[in-house]
Amino acid sequence: MSLSKILTEDFLTCSICHQKFKDPKVLSCAHTFCQHCLQGHLDRNCQGQPRFPCPICRRHCVLPGGGVSALQTNHLLVSISQTHGQVEQAKAAKKCKICCMKNVYSPSTATKRCSDCEESMCGDCSSDHVLHNFSRDHKLFPVDQFDSDDYVTELRARQNVLCDHNNKDPVEIFCPVCVKFVCVGCMVLEHQGHDCLRINTAADKRKEKLELRVKPIEKKSLRYDHFKTAAEDQKLSVEEGRKKARSQVNKQLDQVVKMARQRANDLLEEIDTMSNAKLDILNGLIATATADQKQLDDVVDFSRKLINHGNDIDVLQMASACEQSSESVETLDIPSLPAAMTQLQLITNDMDECVTNINSCLGNVVPVVSGRLVTSFKVELAKSPEEMISHVTTDVNGDFLFGIFCNEDKSRNRILIYDSNFVLQGTIPNPRAAEKYGFAGIAIDDDGNIVTRCQGSNEIIVYSKKGDHVRTFHSESPNAAAVNSKGHYVVAGRSTLTVHHKDGEVLQTSPDPRNKYMKRIHCNVNDDIIVTGDDHVRVYDSTLQLKYRYGTQGDGDGQVKKSARQDKRAFIHELTEETEAAARKGDMKRIYEITRALSENEEPYPTSERQERYRKTIAGEAEQRARWAEYFKETLNRPPPAVPPDIPPANQLLDVNTNPPTKQEIMKAIKSLKSGKAAGPDGIPPEALKADIQTSTNCCTHC
């Protein structure tokens, strides 16, 4: 913004009295008011309280012990107001000052003004003015340039401040120790040993420091713009969902008799209520973001004006106030949008049910996630060896982090860091590539560092955004890692759940079921820990106490048995196809691996109690029978009957064939198995056996 424009806008006007500033005082939020206006505002509204809200942004400010008069004076405004007065004085001088001094009967109209002499002159007098030796180097400005940046800048450059000691000589030196403006003589006499600087040098240093403060705030303001744009997009999505849902209601309403109209009105009201609730949330977030951004913009605007248009004295006098304002707004947090803003959808049923259930026929309004694509981006991956994206996340700066995984070549495992415009900023390679260990997982801690893990080396590894190694600590078989609201690392191990301090100290640990495949973990805003396993989801509270378990073995709300059953069938179907393909190729090794994986026990290793029991050598036939009874009791998992059953003796003893079954008998038994049934004690489903009957028969024959 040009300095000449500042002189003509509201920058010089108090927002309370709407007059030019008189003794301007600046608050910690960077807003300025007249001293008497601010005093009157506090007397009317705050009644001597030490904290008071800013009349503009409502941000709370602290009143110094000396009252309003002790607040920081806005020297930038004082200086610019002085310049504004000089410009107005120049505009008011209509007649040539030289002609008036010569007592000319009709003085000519002034056409130029000397910035050195501060006098307006006509064309003839200005021409004579530059011919004299003492005024030959003076600068003359035409009257039509009084509002130009050149003239205003010239006036600002000629403003002088007198020495703080003798109050008569122009200042040339700034003492940062005493924070005083002094002349050369006073510096030698009064400031010996102090690291004094020339005014322009000291101002340049403070400008550089202030620039470092302002840049991140400007970037944060841009993020507020992005946030508000995303919120406005979601508002449009909610409005579109409202229109679509209302249209569905009206379409259903046309097919229902008059007795259903009341239900339709209820649905319309429900839609409006749910939509308004969503819009209220978004409007509140936008209002908060707008207010916070206004504070940021005010600080940036004030700082920019000080940097660009304040003279050296202004910068040195106001830099501390600007830095305090910058520190006060740096603590503002950008609101978070809801994880998935939803649209409304009308769930309808068959119209034939209208006679018995009008409400059910009209349906119910339920929120559904809008599937709107916001943006897309392609990450280049190698096809041989095949690479895949294993993890994706974003940080508070809007940067994207992609985890790249390659099972065939672990040295290709890496983390890619892109900015919000999808420009590659850096790459973190696999630190354990030499040992051929996997390297995966991405979580962002409260320091902005990247938390990942290496299961092969039992390590949690932390990197900075620049790829620098921060720390490494031990964690047993880490499958996945997340960060809770306290900044602690929550690690899902192979059979445990552990909470680490960021320095690696174990704070809590709890058992967690083993899985055949990799786990995933997430911490929500309440610090609940969500762990996904092979076939169900477990939810723990912040103390690692199990709250719910969803899925085929769950015991909480929201069971997903049907979905899990379908997934399991799809998994078995894929294994069946793979087994058939292996049989066609004659790959007996792969068939054995699949069979072994399906028949793997949930507890491959006996407990310590069972180990101790099985180490004892069986001494005799009675102990052998007891061991068999114990084995079948554990296998059948039921106690013996309290009353032995009364089994009558057989009328006829049948011959029992103790010979091994033939291949024809085994093939017949396999063919008779029904598909879709549960697997037997060995964990092998019928589909796997029937994939290649000949191979299965050979396996059973050699067992």
UniProtKB/TrEMBL annotation:
The reply to whether Zinc-finger figures as a keyword in the UniProt entry is yes
Q: Which SUPFAM superfamilies match?
A: B-box zinc-binding domain, Calcium-dependent phosphotriesterase, RING/U-box
Q: Which residues form a coiled coil?
A: 250-277
Q: Which domain of life is it from?
A: Eukaryota
Which GO molecular function entries does the Swiss-Prot or TrEMBL record give?
Answer: ubiquitin protein ligase activity; zinc ion binding
**GO term, biological process aspect, one:** positive regulation of type I interferon-mediated signaling pathway
One of its Pfam families is zf-RING_UBOX
Which keywords belong to this entry?
Coiled coil, Metal-binding, Phosphoprotein, Zinc, Zinc-finger
The B box-type domain covers 94-143, 158-199
Where the record annotates domain RING-type, the positions are: 14-58
| Family annotation (InterPro entries) | 6-blade_b-propeller_TolB-like, TRIM45/56/19-like, Znf-RING_euk, Znf_B-box, Znf_RING, Znf_RING/FYVE/PHD, Znf_RING_CS
One Gene Ontology term, aspect cellular component: nucleoplasm
Name of protein: Protein PML-like
Organism from which the protein derives = Lingula anatina (Brachiopod)
